[in-house]
Design brief:
By secondary structure, the protein is α/β, with parallel strands linked by helices. It has one domain (about 5-219): TIM Barrel (Alpha-Beta Barrel). The chain is about 35% helix and about 20% strand. It has helices spanning about 15-25, 40-50, 65-75, 90-95, 145-150, 170-175, 195-219; strands spanning about 5-10, 25-30, 55-65, 80-85, 100-105, 125-130, 155-160, 180, 185-190, 190-195. The chain starts with a strand and ends with a helix. The mean pLDDT is about 95.
């Protein structure tokens, strides 16, 4: 089993981006949803992305955006991976997957059924907590049992929703995802990352990933 990848989302500046990279993050999420307190202008993201080392994935986060908008904003931002929240259909995701790595974000609300994730076969899937108003960065945990069940229907599952240094080890044990995503759990205020919390979170993920791999090897 490969090490669990780490995605830091809601990054809003170059300084926090450098910290994420230096501490060992694999993916950096930039929020292009204007209503978010973590919104960042695509042109600013483009300058940040140009400085990223090879192997680090820049992810543009969208909410209720149609494929044309996603393409236009992603081009300005210079991102090759897009994360889609809200009303993105399997058809639109499949269309965009011809040009981008697509992460379809789904929440474990009352209507969530793990097998429904199979409709997004061309995408990676991010499982997040449900909130009636917010799209990510809620600080609430998702249904880990439902997320684990969704692993059977997805090619690559990213676990999100209220993760932090204290609970990420338990979350990894419960779900065994391919990657974890953190936002509010490593912030001082929305959009401002706490570098010490980042370091602690990444260390906790690495430790839990090593334990999971060791357990799998013994099985």
């Amino acid at each position: 089993m490969n090490p669990i990848q780490i995605k830091i989302c809601g990054v809003t500046n170059a300084n926090d981006t450098r910290a994420c990279v230096e501490l060992g993050a694999d993916m950096i999420g930039f929020n292009f949803y204007r209503k978010s307190p973590r919104y960042i202008e695509p042109a600013v993201v483009r300058r940040i992305v140009k400085a990223l080392p090879p192997g680090i994935s820049a992810v543009g986060v969208f909410v209720d955006a149609d494929p044309a908008e996603v393409r236009d904003v992603a081009k300005v931002g210079g991102v090759q991976c897009v994360q889609l929240h809200g009303n993105a259909t399997p058809e639109s995701c499949s269309e965009l997957a011809q040009e981008f790595r697509v992460i379809r974000a789904l929440s474990t609300d009352a209507q969530f059924e793990p097998e429904h994730t199979a409709a997004f076969a061309h995408c990676d899937v991010l499982i997040d907590a449900y909130h009636p108003e917010l799209r990510g960065g809620t600080g609430q945990t998702c249904n880990w049992s439902a997320a684990r069940a969704a692993m059977h229907y997805t090619r690559f599952l990213i676990l999100s929703g209220g993760l932090n240094t204290r609970n990420v080890g338990s979350a990894i044990t419960a779900v065994t995802p391919h990657a974890v995503d953190v936002c509010s759990g490593v912030e001082t205020t929305p959009g401002v990352k706490d570098h010490r919390a980042l370091e602690q979170f990444i260390s906790a993920v690495r430790a839990a990933s090593a334990m999971t791999n060791a357990s799998s090897s013994r099985s």
